[in-house]
What we know:
By secondary structure, the chain is α/β, with parallel strands linked by helices. The protein has two domains: 124 residues, 3-Layer(aba) Sandwich (Rossmann fold), CATH 3.40.50; 84 residues, Winged helix-like DNA-binding domain superfamily/Winged helix DNA-binding domain (Arc Repressor Mutant, subunit A), CATH 1.10.10.10. It is built from eleven helices and five strands; from the N terminus they run E-H-E-H-E-H-E-H-E-H-H-H-H-H-H-H. It has a five-stranded parallel sheet, sandwiched between helices. It is elongated, with a radius of gyration of 24 Å. The mean pLDDT is 88.
Amino acid sequence: MPIRIIIAEDSSEIRNYFNKIIQSEADMEVAALAASGAEAVEKALLIKPDIILMDIQMESRTDGIEAIAKIHGKEPAIKAIVLTIHSRDDLLYQAYAAGAMDYIIKTNDVADVLTSIRAVASNSLMLRPEIANKIMSEARRIQETQDQMKEILRVMMKITNTEFEIIKLAYDGYSYKDIATQRLVEETTIRSEIYWILKKFNKNKMKDVIKSLKEINFFETFNLN
């Protein structure tokens, strides 16, 4: 049985180039072509190919990655190979996290392209352990940071101006007493505000809130210093 492949690429020139390469191989066949992530998902779930060659950036910067995640979530047996411009693309980490098994540089030799397809199809892809671990570790770190950022932003939307100023002072290392002095209020007032801040963050101690904010460099990231 030939390896059945879907090519998802928004450039017709590149799409046709890979189509021509694959169709010339006796052990491979192109099952369908797609020009967007949405079309790739639709055809992959309908046709159920062995492999999908997925361009990372199509209708959006992460269109291909989002498509891989959707396909992998519903049909994990469909193996994905990423098509990219260069191997240092920061989006490669996200692609691996979404379920991609390998990547192909669009300008690679034909032999490299075919070798990747055959290796992925036969589950014989060899990736040095240290590289695989680094990729997966970085992919998880990025995903965890993004999830953490989203959760913190969700909470910060509920923070009052006063609470925000107290958080910023605590972030900068000021004690409750120092914060009270700066704000010209009693320390008990600051502690009362801290109580509500902790409730919103679902934390027991202010140092845990600050730790979470520092892990994502919250004030630096959003230029709030």
